[in-house]
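Question: Now follow the chain.
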Amino acid sequence: MITYIIALSLAVVGGSVGTWLTFFRDRVRLDLNLISITKCRNPEDTVLVGDGLMEAAKSFGLSDLNLERNATESRIQDIRSRAQDVEAEAPRQIEFARGMQMRLWQCRAQEEKAEFVYSLMNDGPLVFSEIVTGLRSGKLVLSELDQGATHQPEVCSVVSRHVDSTESVVLTFPDGRSQSIPIDPPEIEEQVKHLAATIQAFDVDRLDKCLRYAITTLRSDLSWADILTGGLKNIVDSSPFMVELMIVNKGSRAAILSPYAALRTRGAHSKIPPTDLRVESIHDGRNEPAAVRGSSWVAIEPHAAVTLILRSGPVEATAPLSAAFDKGLLRCSIALARLKSWAVKSVKYKKEKTVYKDFGANIDKAMLDKVKELVGQG
């Protein structure tokens, strides 16, 4: 009798262990690996732009891109890049234009005149761009040159033809060098031809008028550039955080994940609350992306590896997370919820999380230092 009871007990225990082992083999087992954390928007994401920046962009003469109220990231980056170029180059270009004004009245020989024009178009890209942009906007107007008023030899020949699929006026100098001025849009053809005639005849009064206009507008654009670079920098720096997370499902059951997650951080001077993230897309082993819409759950098949792209909402540049991320290194981890079980009246979740890793402004240096350290160990 005792033997029977023991045998029965062992059978029950053995059955329980077998059931547990079967469950253990079949359960979801996730391996999460945090790959990257960056601050960026999608190029076509739109950002609300304030009145001050819109006015600055409208007044900025060298920008032919309209800054709209809801501007795309790519448009903001283009205008910011142009404003930064002006900030860096305008002071030198203004001095260049002043020097050209003095040099203009001293040119006597045809070689000197040709070299002056060629230098103006090549060494003064912002100066000449201001002149052409002024013609395009109608702020600089050149009247038709009186062909009978000058008896000087021509500095260059002038013809109209396509250059890189754009109708242009081409100036060819006696030494064979050439320069082109695009007629874009077509409505400015007359003004471009007046400019070409001015150069061809080396009309010093009209060339001086163009240089004076370029200096004045460059000074104005330099002021607007300061406003644009500062304001657009704040918009760019207030970008969302984008996270790349690799997940491997080592189990034999599909894993069902919430489309929402949290970015947790350590290492800042003060405690930073978790930042909400949302799964934007999921990439399979062939790196084929599939967008995640609305509140869709994310399914990861058994024995599959996927990469999730998660994105936060915009984070102000002055926010604790953004400021800390921009200055050094933070230890970061991602936590998300997996659907564990569900019933009519009960849904249970399990928290899945990555280990903490270093990310931030100094991440490249930190990784390089680690390589040097490992190499130094032999």
The mean pLDDT is 85. DSSP finds nine helices and 15 strands in the chain. The chain has two domains: 28-43+240-376, 60-152+203-236.
